[in-house]
Write a structure and sequence with these properties.
Blueprint: H1 3-21, E1 48-50, E2 55-66, E3 72-80, E4 83-86, E5 89-92, E6 97-105, E7 125-128, H2 130-136, E8 142-145, E9 153-155, E10 180-185, E11 193-198, H3 205-210, E12 215-219, E13 231-238, E14 250-252, E15 255-257, E16 265-269, E17 274-280, E18 287-292, E19 299-304, E20 307-308, E21 314-315, E22 318-320, E23 325-330, E24 339-343, E25 358-366, E26 398-407, E27 416-421, E28 437-440, E29 444-451, E30 457-461, E31 466-471, E32 474-482, E33 484-487, E34 497-504, E35 512-518, H4 521-525, E36 529-535
Parallel strand pairs: 1-5, 2-6, 5-12, 13-17, 16-25, 26-29, 28-36
Antiparallel strand pairs: 2-3, 3-4, 6-10, 7-8, 9-11, 11-12, 13-14, 14-15, 17-23, 18-22, 18-24, 19-20, 19-21, 19-23, 24-25, 26-27, 29-34, 30-33, 30-35, 31-32, 31-34, 35-36
This protein binds copper (II) ion.
Length: 537
Amino acid sequence: MNEAKVMIRNWKISAVAAVLFGICMSSGAQNFCPPRPTYGDAVVNPLDLYSQNGVLTLNLALRSSLGPTQQVRYCYVYMNGDQEVESPTLRLDPGDQLVINFTNNITVTAGKHPLKSRHAPNMPMEMGDAAAAKKTGDYCMGGIVDATTTNIHFHGMNIPPLCHQDEVVYTIIPNGGAQFQYDTQIPPNDQFGMYWYHPHPHGFSAPQVYGGAAGALIINGSNQYTQGLPERILVIRNYADALTDEDGMFTLNFVPAGKFKPLPVINTTAGQKEFWRVVNASTNGFLTLQIYTTDAVPLQLISLDGIPFTSPPTVTTVSIPPAGRAEFVVPALQANVKTTLQTLGFDSGSIGDPMPPANLANIIVAGNPKIKLPKVPPATPAKVAARFSGLAGKKPTATRSLYFSETNVGTNGPGQFYITVQGQVPKLFDAMNPPAIKTKIGAIEDWTITNQTAEPHAFHIHQLHFLVEAIDGQQLPNPYMADTVTVDEWSGSGPFHSVTVRMDFSDPNIAGKFVYHCHILDHEDGGMMATIEVDPN
Ligand SMILES: [Cu+2]
């Protein structure tokens, strides 16, 4: 089906939706996604929205439409005047308030192709009390989560697991309903760094994020290594419009990086260092990034998952699991030298989705850059002690063992995906399950997460970062903070691989119930998620 027909089809659905939900429409395309860049386009930073006087308030809508190949696109749309802007970057200072007046305008949930979930059944599921939620219109009480519902998760943010802040199990926002307000405060003791926002409706997170619903969130600030540098934001997503299931195909700020088409273009200035901030917003891609000229360019790694290193290491390959972020300084590049951004591929085991090497962009180094980038502000001394400082020296109050496991239902059918506390019975995620782990504010816990499956998984917990202490029982020489970490697959012989992390539950603001899961979102949708309850006392 060509674009024109798709537009007509979209318009018809839109008109029906408008009547159903009483939406006053000024144009037929109002509830659909704005056009996205195409092959060979320049990669430009998303629109920046800065907080003012300590507050960032914005209206944001989640919409959907069919792409040119009838795959469903999902898009976060911000109206910049009368201009539709997809996935703005939200920029706030530590301690600032973030207020999002959010509307779920999903209209299209199925095209010619099924929802993009390789492994999850995409079955509607009741969260909380759907009948009560319907009766009261209170989206905090739960509902039937399906392809038309959504919510927002602020990935990596150390904010309360409460409805209207960062709660994803019982917050079910229906389409066409009333505006829903998110209102939360960036912790004053957060350091500068990159985070991101994305939908998290269980069972449907993968299709919505795969369809493109994701944006960057930056906590402002800098240090001696980054101040004054031009700043480049790269949101790497899956390519939602692929006709064939071309594995490992990504987009950079929505510019597609296909194997057989012109690559995205990154315009840089000769002789100018840059600060790159990359979020892996793909649903399943493990990135292993290099900037390559005649050799791999050394990169100064400033931070992972929004937590800066005290002494930034120099690396040539930057590995980012799904949902992870990496921020690094790119040294001054030379003009007239072929320069590319590439991912080296990733060994995803015998049953994982293939992750072949791929070129992601041509980097054009010129004397006169075509694109002006914002500059990182000057470094200012921290006013308060950084969150999680000194965690390595603390004594754990508990240790736990968890493991990833799967049972396969045929090669093409949905699998069953589990994350289980050692000694408990494996259970697919269900909102009605009691919390798998109970702890309390003040606890310091060491968790060892083992992978019993033949593919890697990406462990993530909401509301807090953790210290990555050991891999396969071997203490790391330089433990580091993260909110998402890869646990390697089992090769079929020898011991299972594991990662040991230290959890710090000392912040009273994170008391409550929240989730941990695999951030391969198909796995999360397929059941690989459980809840923890953190008692305030
Ligand atoms: Cu997984």
